[in-house]
Amino acid sequence: AKTAPASPTAAADPVTVRVDLGDRSYDILIGSGLLDRAETWAGLPRASTALIVTNTTVAPLYAERVQAALQPHYPRVRVLALPDGEAHKDAATLERIYDELLGQACDRKTVLFALGGGVVGDMTGFAAACYMRGVPFVQVPTTLLAQVDSSVGGKTAINHPMGKNMIGAFYQPQRVICDLDTLDTLPIRELSAGLAEVIKYGPIADPEFLSWIEAHIDALMARDKVALAHAVRRSCEIKAAVVGSDEREGGVRAILNFGHTFGHAIEAGLGYGEWLHGEGVGCGMVMAAELSVRLGLMPAAFRERLEALCVRAGLPVRGPALGAARYLELMRVDKKAEGGEIRFVVIDRLGSARMQGAPDTMVTGVLDACC
Ligand code: NAD
Ligand code: MG
């Protein structure tokens, strides 16, 4: 079993990224050694109880340290370790959070701390949105994917047997705490999955960032802290800017789903858990790039460039052979589909994305070329 590394003695000052949402604004803290710094936990809403919601994998690694850090601020600090995995991001597991809160007579000021990856973050956020019509919560993401994507922006949800993330709410955290040291214990496959979401931000928003990732992909794969700090920071800045201008996805926020329409089809088509979300996104970005090329928006070299980067990030770039008809069927139930018409996020120039439909024959051609 892996054990958590000792925190470094001389951690650099954390970087702060602000998410500007009026009275729902909050800070994202990014740095090494954050879990053990007193300042990390200062200034949060006061309460008689703090509940750390985590899972059985993350709890033995980090829960004790977070509990110790919170004890000076809250008279009672409890830990709830849920079963691990996307399969448990469901109503039954959500109910266990409410059971704990009600069983411990937690009041409406109770602060929830989501310690873990996107599954724990999404589910804890949704529990916080609903418990007594809303209690404050703090995101403490411990996967790269959660640090660069899911913990920021206030989308919370659980899955329904008929669809992923179908039951949820927009509910912003009080703070996001990204301790880069927690990524040391992350399985390499999960690191790669997180890198897919990092890579995503380049084509949709920042060509320079895309070039930076290409120059630093080996350092990122080796978990170099300076490289990770920049990757998490730039990703959060871009996500914060997009969310700040379109909190509830009336428009531009949808571009964050670059690669996700194809990716979700892969995830669902193989059965959830076979491919990781980020793996589907990596391969899905290559497909969406190929579609952008076929729509005449981008040169073929763009697809090749993105594919080469995904390969270096350890991501799959060939889709499973589900058959084009099955892909199309799966993509028509995507949340972004409107009246059965699939809406793809395509790149129209480097650093700029838009939503667009495409003829089934063209999409079939993309799938034939990419599977
Ligand atoms: P995850 O939460 O399942 O975590 C991946 C695995 O890593 C789990 O087994 C977890 O226990 C383990 N883990 C977590 N931190 C660890 C650490 N520091 N060391 C060792 N192991 C660790 O998966 P994820 O990729 O973090 O998140 C995926 C989820 O996020 C999906 O449910 C997806 O729908 C959701 N998501 C939400 C948003 C959003 O905007 N809310 C955005 C993207 C994804
Ligand atoms: Mg995603």
Mind explaining what this structure looks like?
- With 371 residues, this protein is α/β, with parallel strands linked by helices.
- Helices cover 43% and strands 18% of the residues.
- The chain has a four-stranded parallel beta sheet, with helices on both faces.
- β1 and β2 (26-31) form a beta hairpin.
- α8 (260-270) crosses α11.
- The protein is globular and about 60 Å long.
- It starts with 14 loop residues before the first strand and ends with a helix.
- The protein binds nicotinamide-adenine-dinucleotide and magnesium ion (MG).
- The site of nicotinamide-adenine-dinucleotide has 28 residues, from α3, α4 and α5.
Topology record:
Elements: E1 15-19, E2 26-31, E3 49-55, H1 59-70, E4 76-82, H2 91-103, E5 111-116, H3 118-130, E6 137-141, H4 144-150, E7 155-160, E8 163-170, E9 175-179, H5 188-205, H6 207-221, H7 225-245, H8 260-270, H9 277-294, H10 300-312, H11 324-331, E10 344-349, E11 352-356, H12 360-370
Parallel strand pairs: 2-9, 3-4, 3-5, 5-6
Antiparallel strand pairs: 1-2, 7-8, 10-11
Helix pairs in contact: 4-5, 4-7, 5-6, 5-7, 5-9, 6-7, 8-9, 8-11, 9-10, 9-12, 11-12
The structure holds nicotinamide-adenine-dinucleotide and magnesium ion.
Nicotinamide-adenine-dinucleotide binds next to helix 3, helix 4 and helix 5.
